[in-house]
Model the fold of this input.
Amino acid sequence: MIMGFADPYDALLNLQRSLQATLSSDWLQDLTPNRGPFPPINVFQQREDILAIIELPGVKKDELQIQAKENAIRIVGKKTIEYPEEASLHRRERISGEFDRTLSLPVQIEPDGIKAEYRDGILALFLPRAESDKPRTIKIS
Done:
Protein backbone atom coordinates (compact mmCIF):
# COMPACT_ATOMS: atom_id res chain seq x y z
CA MET A 1 0.00 0.00 0.00
CA ILE A 2 1.37 3.38 -1.02
CA MET A 3 0.55 6.41 1.11
CA GLY A 4 0.24 9.77 -0.57
CA PHE A 5 0.70 13.16 0.99
CA ALA A 6 -1.50 16.15 0.26
CA ASP A 7 0.14 18.90 -1.73
CA PRO A 8 0.83 21.82 0.69
CA TYR A 9 0.36 24.27 -2.18
CA ASP A 10 -3.23 23.10 -2.58
CA ALA A 11 -3.89 23.98 1.06
CA LEU A 12 -2.35 27.44 0.59
CA LEU A 13 -4.33 28.00 -2.61
CA ASN A 14 -7.57 27.05 -0.85
CA LEU A 15 -6.75 29.42 2.01
CA GLN A 16 -6.05 32.24 -0.44
CA ARG A 17 -9.36 31.63 -2.23
CA SER A 18 -11.23 31.69 1.08
CA LEU A 19 -9.58 34.96 2.14
CA GLN A 20 -10.33 36.60 -1.22
CA ALA A 21 -13.96 35.49 -1.04
CA THR A 22 -14.27 36.94 2.47
CA LEU A 23 -12.68 40.26 1.51
CA SER A 24 -14.78 40.62 -1.63
CA SER A 25 -18.00 40.01 0.32
CA ASP A 26 -19.69 42.72 2.35
CA TRP A 27 -18.74 41.01 5.61
CA LEU A 28 -16.08 43.61 6.49
CA GLN A 29 -17.88 46.63 5.06
CA ASP A 30 -19.19 47.94 8.41
CA LEU A 31 -15.82 47.92 10.17
CA THR A 32 -14.81 51.47 9.35
CA PRO A 33 -13.72 54.19 11.80
CA ASN A 34 -17.04 55.99 11.42
CA ARG A 35 -18.99 53.09 12.96
CA GLY A 36 -19.37 52.86 16.70
CA PRO A 37 -18.30 55.59 19.08
CA PHE A 38 -15.29 56.53 16.93
CA PRO A 39 -15.82 59.89 15.23
CA PRO A 40 -15.32 60.12 11.46
CA ILE A 41 -12.59 62.57 10.43
CA ASN A 42 -11.90 64.40 7.17
CA VAL A 43 -8.48 65.98 6.67
CA PHE A 44 -7.71 68.68 4.10
CA GLN A 45 -4.63 70.63 3.18
CA GLN A 46 -5.19 74.36 2.70
CA ARG A 47 -2.10 75.99 1.25
CA GLU A 48 0.61 74.85 3.69
CA ASP A 49 -1.65 74.15 6.67
CA ILE A 50 -3.93 71.23 7.57
CA LEU A 51 -7.64 71.36 8.44
CA ALA A 52 -9.31 68.43 10.24
CA ILE A 53 -13.11 68.21 10.51
CA ILE A 54 -14.42 65.75 13.11
CA GLU A 55 -18.08 64.80 13.55
CA LEU A 56 -18.97 64.56 17.24
CA PRO A 57 -22.76 64.69 17.63
CA GLY A 58 -23.86 64.25 21.21
CA VAL A 59 -20.40 64.96 22.64
CA LYS A 60 -20.16 67.82 25.11
CA LYS A 61 -17.35 70.30 24.54
CA ASP A 62 -16.00 69.93 28.07
CA GLU A 63 -15.73 66.14 27.61
CA LEU A 64 -13.27 66.49 24.73
CA GLN A 65 -9.52 66.38 25.09
CA ILE A 66 -7.19 67.25 22.20
CA GLN A 67 -3.44 66.64 22.27
CA ALA A 68 -0.88 67.51 19.60
CA LYS A 69 2.68 66.36 19.10
CA GLU A 70 4.92 66.71 16.03
CA ASN A 71 2.86 65.10 13.26
CA ALA A 72 0.00 63.58 15.27
CA ILE A 73 -3.27 64.75 16.82
CA ARG A 74 -5.06 62.75 19.51
CA ILE A 75 -8.77 63.25 20.21
CA VAL A 76 -10.24 61.63 23.32
CA GLY A 77 -13.82 61.89 24.50
CA LYS A 78 -17.01 60.19 25.46
CA LYS A 79 -20.30 60.04 23.61
CA THR A 80 -23.23 59.52 25.96
CA ILE A 81 -26.83 58.84 25.09
CA GLU A 82 -29.41 59.08 27.84
CA TYR A 83 -32.81 57.45 27.80
CA PRO A 84 -35.66 58.12 30.22
CA GLU A 85 -35.78 55.49 32.96
CA GLU A 86 -39.31 54.41 32.12
CA ALA A 87 -38.63 54.19 28.36
CA SER A 88 -38.66 50.88 26.53
CA LEU A 89 -35.87 50.66 23.98
CA HIS A 90 -37.05 49.20 20.65
CA ARG A 91 -34.17 50.04 18.35
CA ARG A 92 -30.66 51.27 19.08
CA GLU A 93 -28.59 52.61 16.20
CA ARG A 94 -26.85 55.51 17.94
CA ILE A 95 -23.84 54.15 19.73
CA SER A 96 -22.30 55.59 22.86
CA GLY A 97 -19.00 55.03 24.55
CA GLU A 98 -15.49 56.35 24.94
CA PHE A 99 -13.29 57.00 21.94
CA ASP A 100 -9.59 57.66 21.49
CA ARG A 101 -8.43 58.52 17.97
CA THR A 102 -4.91 59.38 16.93
CA LEU A 103 -4.53 61.00 13.55
CA SER A 104 -1.13 60.88 11.84
CA LEU A 105 -0.46 63.85 9.58
CA PRO A 106 1.76 64.01 6.48
CA VAL A 107 3.64 67.08 7.81
CA GLN A 108 5.06 68.38 11.08
CA ILE A 109 2.69 70.79 12.82
CA GLU A 110 3.18 73.71 15.18
CA PRO A 111 1.28 72.63 18.35
CA ASP A 112 1.25 76.15 19.83
CA GLY A 113 -0.54 77.55 16.78
CA ILE A 114 -3.44 75.08 16.69
CA LYS A 115 -6.94 76.55 16.79
CA ALA A 116 -10.05 74.53 17.61
CA GLU A 117 -13.69 75.48 16.99
CA TYR A 118 -16.64 73.37 18.14
CA ARG A 119 -20.11 74.15 16.87
CA ASP A 120 -23.24 72.02 16.39
CA GLY A 121 -21.39 68.75 16.98
CA ILE A 122 -18.60 69.53 14.48
CA LEU A 123 -15.02 70.07 15.65
CA ALA A 124 -12.71 71.96 13.30
CA LEU A 125 -8.99 71.84 14.00
CA PHE A 126 -6.76 74.33 12.21
CA LEU A 127 -3.27 72.83 12.25
CA PRO A 128 -0.47 75.13 11.10
CA ARG A 129 2.53 73.51 9.47
CA ALA A 130 5.76 73.90 11.42
CA GLU A 131 8.19 76.45 10.00
CA SER A 132 10.97 73.86 10.11
CA ASP A 133 8.87 71.58 7.87
CA LYS A 134 8.03 74.15 5.20
CA PRO A 135 10.00 74.02 1.97
CA ARG A 136 12.62 76.72 1.51
CA THR A 137 13.60 78.57 -1.63
CA ILE A 138 17.35 78.61 -2.06
CA LYS A 139 18.91 81.59 -3.78
CA ILE A 140 21.74 80.68 -6.11
CA SER A 141 24.67 83.11 -6.01
In short: The first strand starts at residue 41 and ends at 46.
